[in-house]
């Protein structure tokens, strides 16, 4: 039983710790870098939107200790980064899951 708990915990923490999307990497995201550089520095985005000839890449950016997740957006035009900034209109993946999980728990709880 103890081995199972350790395996599950290492898997859960391992998923967040292997992401390139970290707060410490934000200074690397400067306007003018290529699409390939963005992918190399931050990995694949969580979501890609296309608007008026631009691509908006949404990321869940993890704190260095993986305790917090921050929403960020990269604006790409012609495969070049135009801006990288916080995104107030996006709920990161882990928060969506936590909200959905709490909603399920609240609807199935016995009064």
- The radius of gyration is 17 Å
Under CATH, the topology can be stated as Beta-lactamase Inhibitory Protein, Chain:B, domain 1
Number of strands: 4
Number of helices: 3
Q: Indicate the mean pLDDT.
A: 77
Unreliable sequence segments: 11-17, 95-111
Instruction: Please give the domain count.
Output: 1
The side-by-side strand order for the widest beta sheet comes to 1-2-3-4
What is the approximate shape? Answer: globular
Q: What is the chain-wise order of helices and strands?
A: HHEEEEH
Kindly report how far apart the N and C termini lie.
Answer: 31 Å
Assigned CATH architecture:
2-Layer Sandwich
Overview of the structural elements:
The chain has one domain: 2-Layer Sandwich (Beta-lactamase Inhibitory Protein, Chain:B, domain 1), CATH 3.30.1450.10. It is 36% helix and 27% strand. It has three helices and four strands, in the order ααββββα.
């Amino acid at each position: 039983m103890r081995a199972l708990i350790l395996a599950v915990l290492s898997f859960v923490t391992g998923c967040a710790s292997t992401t390139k999307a970290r707060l410490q990497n934000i200074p690397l995201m400067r306007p003018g870098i290529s699409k390939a550089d963005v992918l190399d520095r931050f990995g694949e985005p969580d979501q890609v939107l296309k608007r008026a000839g631009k691509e908006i890449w949404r990321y869940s950016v993890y704190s260095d200790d993986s305790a917090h997740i921050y929403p960020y957006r990269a604006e790409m035009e012609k495969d070049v980064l135009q801006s990288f900034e916080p995104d107030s209109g996006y709920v990161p993946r882990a928060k969506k899951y936590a909200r959905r999980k709490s909603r399920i728990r609240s609807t199935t709880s016995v009064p």
